[in-house]
Hints:
By secondary structure, this protein is an alpha/beta fold. The protein contains 23 helices and 27 strands. The strands form six sheets. Strands 12, 13, 14, 15, 16, 17, 24 and 25 form an eight-stranded mixed sheet that branches. It has a seven-stranded mixed sheet with strand order 3-2-1-4-5-10-11, sandwiched between helices. A four-stranded parallel sheet has the order 7-8-6-9, with helices on both faces.
Amino acid sequence: MSEDLQPTVDxxxxxxxxxxxxxxxxGDAQGMNAAVRATVRVGIYTGAKVYFVHEGYQGxxxxxxxxCLATWESxxxxxxxxxxxxxxxxxxxxxxxxxxxxxxxxxxxxxxxxLCVIGGDGSLTGANEFRTEWxxxxxxxxxxxxxxxxxxxxxxxxxxVGMVGSIDNDFCGTDMTIGTDxxxxxxxxxxxxxxxxxxxxxxxxxxxxxxRHCGYLALVTALACGADxxxxxxxxxxxxxxxxxxxxxxxxxxxxxRLNVIIVAEGAMCKDGKPITSDQIKKLVTDRLGFDTRTTxxxxxxxxxxxxxxxxxxxxxxxxxxxxxxxxxxPDTPACVVTxxxxxxxxxxxxxxxxVTKEVxxxxxxxxxxxxxxxxxxxxxxxxxxxxxxxHINPPDTKSNINVAIxxxxxxxxGMNAAVRAAVRMGIIQGHSxxxxxxxxxxxxxxxxxxxxxxxxxxxxxxxxSMLGTKRTLPGKRLEEISQNIAKxxxxxxVIIGGFEAYVGGLELVQAREKYEEMCIPIxxxxxxxxxxxxxxxxxxGADTALNTITSTCDRIKxxxxxxxxxxxxxxxxGGYCGYLATMAGLAAGADAAYIFEEKFDIKDLExxxxxxxxxMKTTVKRGLVLRNENCNSNxxxxxxxxxxxxxxxxxFDCRKNVLGHMQQGGTPTPFDRNFGTKMGAKAxxxxxxxxxECYRHGRIFANxxxxxxxxxxxxxxxxxxxxxxxxxxxxxxxxxxxxxxWLKIRPIMKILAKYDIKLDxxxxxxxEHVIKKSSFLGK
Length: 780
């Protein structure tokens, strides 16, 4: 809602006198609990009464104890649980008018006129039908004497808001549904484990993942593990695929690969609609090639386990948005669904999304497979195109005579190698010769540069750290040697993958163009750092992996505190001066406070936080979690805050502290970082290829314009290239952070969910958009 239209709305009074019911329906998905928790707590924050509906629509029909009042404490400790705590059930009764009449009667008796449904497209369609019939159901209930005229008048209109909980990511209009990222975590854990055993025995592994009508999980898994082949329902293989597949597998073995991985969606089929099963593929590979082949069907493992940090944040943000959408709805507002586009929470008309989702199925049934992929949205289409480019094309016979160098700068982070691999392979596909620079700018100055070929980067997507080697050194003092090596190795373009040093280093090279003509080559910087502090991008590669590491550690810490009771943990996170990790981990782990540099705090704030903790210990939730960014304040150190809480909490709670340290930079990359890195690496090289054509003058490359040296970043809903020089205005070089950071707007949500009485800015809340206009970024 825009501020000038509703300047007087006080969010803490929006829900007074209103009642909201929340239910989960259909197949369960990790992250549903985060959405339920946020809906309950934000509902209570607005002054509304919030009810749980247990067992989905069945509970709505049966009523009684299935619909019960939720309290603040009743959603405590559910953030890290998979599945849905309030239960879900397939419900035949709700499909009949009689069943819906019982459900309406139960809601009217409790004065509930706002319903928040978390489920798949079937569940959401059911909710919309319920809303459309509502007034008719009330008339029948009054006629049957089940409710009074007065009760019907009070509940004359039902508001519906949906959130999509589905591990298949099969709902059009959103980049990600709740549960998809966690399902990918489960799949990738298995793929990584299988890869090690397959390499030992030179085996071919066929992995079947869920997705009866949607190939998203299979496609992203194939991208994230560099699979040799993927079968998805949206794009059946061409006729004669059997020969093509066997040729591909043989080629990979001939190139020295010790394993083959084939990913199959459970709904995979031929162009004539006949299913393609993993057993069928196994028989083909064994009979034709004689390869030792194994099949693994993942099944319900994908639905299980703890939700990823991404799903917890997604569920929490969607829950907040859903409550606001319900309380702002009028009888004329169509039922809406809260979706994700880039990093924006967006409201879309529910039935428009359902309609497009149904059109995908229709397109597949009619054999219009290109349309099916387009209808799935930009995100799916980009994934498919990237996969095809990186897996399906043999390098061209004609070379471009272009040499592209790739380097890592700054601290290592998970996902760097995925970006290097994608850049190398995309470069080779474009006909370029690729050069790997070891040890950052030092390596460029010392000539530690060597050719890097297709097989050099095999298996790199799943490896943490930096295989090329990385250093924090900037090029400023070694420009002479660097320019000599650019000339000596005939480097025509440069890909720099790294953190804030990568940005500053790139800037130094651009500023040196006046003196050194060798620096007049196209340069692209790909942000990769756990701190997420590179100007020009809302996300950087590596931050998601670090966030998951911090979140899972905080889960364990909270569990230990729940056992001992009355214990508060102070946890220090990395990030330099950037509070992204502390804030997002605070939201994902359910922290009581997160101290960061960007939001100034003084002793009064610290006292208020301690007092808040003292009050919390009087409730049934007897534990606390406080996060502190490493550089949030030079005087209020982790030790200081620990001592303060220890002293003030004497006799009420005791304290422990943890400094997480370098474990945040390690680990295998998450599916998000693998996929994000792969897309960034591929897109960067395609951009360089176009730039090189523009800069080709009189038989040589000469690039000295500002737009020939860019940061490739994700901005709101798209991947964009922004000149390094233009971003100087937006950068605080002393503190090494961008001046404006989008995630600061999410901080109030964390505080409200921790029961702080603060004002939530409703001015930026998403107005209703339309599916057709929507253009999403590149998906996860």
